[in-house]
């Protein structure tokens, strides 16, 4: 039998999973006529405050930018604007949405490779930071700034030495050329940034320290160079260590429908996650240094920027599907829900969102705690590969049509990165739950639809 991977959750979510709170989930399923996402913006606020507190504890001048690509909902960008957070955008559409939500141009950082001229033009006009990824992009940016009679705010993106095949960033020679091209009245060279894949804190600390040294070098050329962006890459802890280790030790092909195999998974357990990962990063002594990263940053008079997405959205949302049918096959059930795996975007990486969905049964006379009942979860499409959960989940009661499956902690990258109205199925709407009543469980939560189309 497959290992249970129960997701960490919060009081406000637990109150919705059992009566009387679960009545709201069933009513929303009926009223919206399909799957939907639930958002908890107050959890976003708490995560952002925790990151800021980590900077304050270390005595470091730091700035938190929300990586907007992690979720398309308007509510999180609106909360970022109110809290005075920065926002990381990588397209003209994301920039436009951030400005419309009240984020000031100077609080934006524009990332992504080979940005088009329209995006660069608006970034210059708004005074946004632009992370320049290539020499030709820098040339276009300088030309645009000159035509507009403005000064472009620039971070030079460093190619990570430990990831030389990355398609992001400038190598040593390109970086030196870029520094000299930044010595123009149409550029204010603000500092350096980098993009790292993965969650290796020491690697991030080493590259951040190198970027601080690059700031010192850039200042000898008369450039401002007082900011370093360490990007995102702050892990989220979804499940406990014991369950995660047991899953890896005991998992076998027969635990998955059709003996499905994956090459790897997101690290759903992380002993150091979120703001604690930032604390660890700041306390790390980079290779070749005698001081911690926090001490190096302070000594150099550098502001450290971070761009978390998933970590700011930890516990800030869940996804709800209704069971449409079930069939028994070889000792387990195949469930079909009213949506698609495109609303659980881990499939995008040829992987699986592993935390167990929670069954929220409808009222029915045959309900009895006689499990476990193993079941996989398929989508309401005609594609054999469209499975929300290939793994045979151990449910305490047998799922039936009308029951709900709630996938927990899906706000970070899962909800909408890969969404598509395939089969003309509507995209799942986002329901925002907020206010003091949402956490108590004693009063009916307040809800509204997110304003994103």
Q: Major sheet: size, sense and barrel closure?
A: 9 strands, mixed
Query: What's the mean pLDDT score?
Result: 94
CATH topology of the largest domain: TIM Barrel
What is the CATH first-level class name of the largest domain? Alpha Beta
Radius of gyration, taken over Cα atoms and rounded to an integer in Å: 24 Å
Structural class: alpha/beta
Distance from N terminus to C terminus (CA atoms, Å) equals 42 Å
Query: Helix and strand string, N-terminal first?
Result: HHEHEHEHEHEHEHEHEHHHEEEEEEEEHE
Low-confidence stretches: 437-442
Q: Total number of helical segments?
A: 13
Oligomeric composition of the shown chains: single chain
Proportion of strand residues? 15-25%
Under the CATH scheme, the architecture of the largest domain is Alpha-Beta Barrel
The level of helicity is: 25-40%
CATH homology group of the largest domain: Alanine racemase
Spell out the key features of this protein:
single chain, 453 residues, alpha/beta, Lyase, Ornithine Decarboxylase, Chain A, domain 1, nine-stranded mixed beta sheet, eight-stranded parallel barrel, 13 helices
Topology (elements, then pairings):
Layout: H1 11-17, H2 22-32, E1 36-39, H3 41-58, E2 62-67, H4 74-83, E3 86-89, H5 92-100, E4 108-110, H6 117-126, E5 129-132, H7 135-148, E6 152-158, H8 172-181, E7 187-194, H9 201-219, E8 227-229, H10 241-250, H11 274-283, H12 293-300, E9 303-306, E10 317-329, E11 332-337, E12 358-360, E13 373-378, E14 387-395, E15 404-408, E16 430-434, H13 437-440, E17 446-449
Parallel strand pairs: 1-16, 2-3, 2-9, 3-4, 4-5, 5-6, 6-7, 7-8, 8-9, 11-13
Antiparallel strand pairs: 1-10, 10-11, 10-15, 12-15, 13-14, 16-17
